[in-house]
Write a structure and sequence with these properties.
Blueprint (H helix, E strand, L loop, with lengths): L1 E2 L4 H67 L5 H35 L8 E3 L19 H4 L1 H22 L4 E11 L4 E11 L7 H67 L5 H35 L6 H4 L6 E3 L2
Antiparallel strand pairs: 1-3, 2-5, 3-4
Length: 336
């Protein structure tokens, strides 16, 4: 038995415990990153389905206008040029759908892999992003990041482990006391006798190995201390970046929503005026395209808004439970 006078064995055990804690925090970091990726892909799939529905709706509206223009052309009210232009507009809207289908399928298959499901037959049940509310996480104080983000906790645990390693290296310079227990049989008393023999050992010559190990462990502490400080600074930067993104996307969404409202009203008025013969066909084509572009842009900004909220959750070290991310959502993941 070795008597731990100088705390060498205790320090080694504490170092191992700290490293074990670091691996637990690493697993939590990986879990948090995986959850963020799942949420991002989930919102992306719903957004692409919204964009597909929009493209189909706009194409259907363009087809109705095409039917009207064809009737007018048959009566000589407009020329075949207007018919060809409207047919081109309708086909342009329809041509956007295959690319959106491909993007939706890619995001859906990526989501399937992330949740550990077979891509074949994997699908979502839901009504798109319209049924979801953008999560608003509470940022709290910056010092809270030290206990919320598992990557910072992992860096701190490794720093603690390295400090314990320095204690082990220092204790290696000091003498070790070992106890050997010897047992025997007392023939007179008829019992066993135990005796302890102590051995004191002192490192005499190690060729600078002990000093080198101490210097190495001390330098390792300095390295991990710098990494720990850097991880805190990067975490604060991450939070500020995501806060800025969420704040600016709030403004962008409001502005784009106003643009969509104006485009819808312009499209409605243009169709009414065109049917009454008080506006030209070129104006109708322009407002059709403007409405589609405005609504499609709004859907993309809404996706960015959700993904910024996910990024803020991740930066704060928060969880991604369904109740937290989409408490008002009725959409569920379904697969075989």
């Amino acid at each position: 038995y070795e008597v731990d006078f100088w705390g060498k064995q205790r320090a080694a055990a504490d170092s191992a415990d700290a490293l074990a804690n670091a691996t637990v925090f690493d697993a939590q970091t990986l879990r948090m990153s995986l959850s963020a990726s799942i949420a991002d892909r989930y919102f992306e799939v719903l957004s692409l389905e919204d964009r597909l529905r929009l493209a189909q709706s706009i194409a259907d509206d363009a087809r109705q206008v095409l039917d009207l223009v064809e009737v007018q052309a048959s009566q000589g009210a407009v020329s075949n040029l207007e018919v060809a232009q409207q047919r081109n507009a309708m086909q342009t809207f329809e041509a956007a759908m295959p690319a959106l289908h491909q993007q939706r399928d890619l995001a859906l298959y990526q989501l399937a892999v992330l949740v550990g499901a077979q891509p074949e037959g994997f699908h979502l049940q839901g009504n798109g992003l319209k049924t979801l509310q953008v999560p608003q996480p509470s940022t709290g104080l910056p010092i809270g990041l030290l206990r919320q983000r598992p990557d910072i906790q992992a860096a701190e645990a490794r720093l603690k482990s390295a400090n314990f390693d320095v204690g082990v290296a220092r204790a290696a310079f000091l003498p070790n006391l070992s106890l050997d227990l010897l047992g025997g049989i007392d023939t007179l008393a008829g019992g066993q006798i135990w005796s302890a023999i102590g051995t004191l050992s002192q490192p005499v010559f190690a060729g600078g190995q002990l000093k080198g190990q101490l210097h190495f462990d001390q330098a390792h502490v300095q390295e991990l201390a710098s990494s720990y400080r850097e991880s805190i600074i990067e975490a604060l930067q991450d939070v500020e970046t995501q806060l800025s993104a969420a704040r600016e996307l709030d403004k962008s969404y409001a502005l784009n929503q106003s643009a969509v409202d104006s485009a819808r009203e312009a499209a409605r008025l243009a169709q009414v005026r065109y049917r009454l013969g008080s506006t030209d066909f070129q104006t109708l084509l322009i407002v059709e395209r403007t409405q589609y572009q405005a609504e499609d842009t709004l859907l993309q900004v809404r996706l960015q808004h959700f993904q910024a909220a996910v990024g803020l959750f991740r930066a704060l070290g928060g969880d991604f439970s369904p109740d937290t991310l989409a408490s008002n959502s009725s959409a569920q993941v379904a697969h075989p």
